[in-house]
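From the pipeline queue, job 12 of 40. The input is one protein chain; the requested action is below.

Action: predict structure.
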Amino acid sequence: MTLTIPDIMLERMNIKEEDLKVELAVLLYDKGSLSFGQAKVLAGLDHLGFQKALKDRGVSLNYDIDEFHKDLKTLGINPKPSS
């Protein structure tokens, strides 16, 4: 899908195309519609750049226990189940 926004609209909103992509990516990430990785690609930013964009807009990282366990698995760490 291609979304076309006329240049005149961007001018009226006083926003550059690149900045609009970041705003959209942050909004969709905050709503849970995009993962961090998907959102940073949409925004055209690297990992730290997208983290900064989130921080600048007061949006927290969506990092829950499941993601933590996935990260541990990726690192080759197998946490022992708690009793």
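Job complete. The mean pLDDT is 89.
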